[in-house]
Structures are given as structure tokens and as C-alpha cells.
Amino acid sequence: MTILQVYVINNYLSLLVNLLLISITLTTERYEMNKNINRWPAWLDMIQGATGLVLVLFMWAHMFFVSSILISHDAMYWVARMFEGEPLFGKPYPILVTLVAVGIFTLLVIHAVLALRKFPSNAQQYQSINQHMSTFKHGDTWLWAVQVISGFFLLFLASIHLYQLMLNPADIGPYASSDRVWSERMWPLYIILLFVVEIHGGIGIYRLAIKWGWFLGKNVKQNRRRLQKVKWGITLFFLILGCATLQAYMTIGYEHQSKVGERYIPKAALEQTNNKTSNQSQQ
Fold it and tell me: In the chain, at which residue ranges do the beta strands (DSSP E only) sit?
């Protein structure tokens, strides 16, 4: 082996060892850096998004359930008894409604507390966000501001509604719900709650899709505009459905105000009772 070959091999081995040492050093530094990174904000953000998604989906399902009054009194009665477990257990258990209300209220509080982390907390932050909104005039920034304001009202209005359900889980039905809306004068709160929850939920699901890149594809700008149209379309649909549903409950409550407290009896059960009474009288 010549001196030149020995020299080349030595330099090659030396370079290899140096590269290995550099790699070990960089890996160690990266590990130490990652170890010191606080991952809690990311986890809290994921929890906030997950709770918001669950609440929006529940809100939409809830709207379809309560709008069953537009089909018939019997349809709404069946939905109410379904949530009380009557089709499964053979008789209604209103405590199930209370448990659902407690669960939704818990998710609402968790979501609200986590969302408060992103609210401006002092005058300087409010001034900065106002300057940012005035300078950039970006539509999504204004949506964020609307979501902050609607979320503030939503926490209080939804809490009142859920508190009622927790204490009076059995007062759900064509007559009971209508009496609450009209005779107990809850319709003003429900009108405000309807618009607040639909606007807040629609913006929330849109911003969640943008944040995680859902349905954006390769053409981000075009698909972003499409998502905005879909968002407003869904919001408008549920607002129309909600207004029609609330109007139906108000009408029933107005017609039933002289019999407040009376519970609705399905037609099938009423016919069965009448048949039994007729048979007993004939005997």
C-alpha cells in the first residue's frame, strides 16, 4: 500500500468519523430542543377543535330532532320519548335527557375555557387586533371577531337552555315544549339563541376546515371560496329551518295557552284508551 493510499484512507476515515460525530451532536441537540418544547398549546388547540366539532354536529342533529314538530305532533312526541329511552327500555327515563344535557354542558364549558385563551386580554391586545383588522381587512379575520362575540353570548344563552333541560327533563313534547316557548315567554331567548348558535357554529366549522386543510385540495383559494359559500348555505338552511320550527312551537303554544300543563297524548294511545273505555261501558 502506497503512502498516497494510506493518506487517502486516513482522510476518508477521519471525515467519516467527523460526520458521525456531527450527526450525533445534531441529533442530541434536536432531542434536547424537542424535550423542552411545550406541547400543551397544541394539545389544547386540538381539544378545543374536537369539542367544537362535536358541539356543531350535535347542534345540527338537535335542530333536525326538534323540527320534527313540522311533520306532526306524533313525530315530535316519538322523538322526545326516544331520547328518554322508551323504545329501548319499554318506558321513558327522563334522567337520560338530564345526562345528555350535562354532557353537552360539560363540552360547552371545556370549549369556552379553551377558546378564552385566544381572546384579547388587555387594551393593548384589543388595539393590536383592531389595527390588524383595519389594515388587512381580511374576511376571515372579521369572521373570527364575529365568532368571538357570538361565542360570548352563546355561553350564557345555551347555559340557560341546558339548565332548564337538566331540571325539567320530562317537560319535552308537543305541548310541554310549546308551553315553555309561548306561555313561559322563552321565545325571545330562543330566537337570539338560534341566530347566535347557527352563526357561531357555521363559522367554527369553516375555520376548523381551513385550519386543518379539509377539502382544500390543490387549488386552495378556489376551494376556500367554495367552503365559504357552503358555510353560508348551511347557516342559512338551519336558520330558515329553526325559524319555521320556532314559529310552529309558538303557534301551538298560543293555541294551547288555556290548557298549560296538559300533556300531549298520541293518537294511537288515545284511540286505544277510547276503545278500552267503550268496551268497559258495553260490558
Answer: none
Cell of 191: 330566537
Element (H, E) at 76: helix 73-83
Phi and psi at 247, nearest 5°, equal: -60, -40
- Domain formed by 38-269, architecture: Up-down Bundle (1.20)
The DSSP call for residue 102 is H
Contact at 8 Å (CB) between 173 and 77? yes
Which residue shows C-alpha cell 385550519?
A: 211
What tens digit of pLDDT does each residue of 111-145 get? Answer: 888 888 777 777 777 777 777 777 767 777 788 88
Amino acid, single-letter form, for residue 120: P
pTM of the full structure: 0.79
How far is the CA of 66 from the CAs of 79, 244, 248, 249, 278, in angstroms?
Answer: 8, 11, 11, 10, 35
| Residue whose C-alpha cell reads 376546515 in the numeric block | 209
For the chain, the C-alpha Rg in angstroms (whole number) is 30
Domain ranges for the chain: 1-37, 38-269
d(CA 215, CA 71): 34
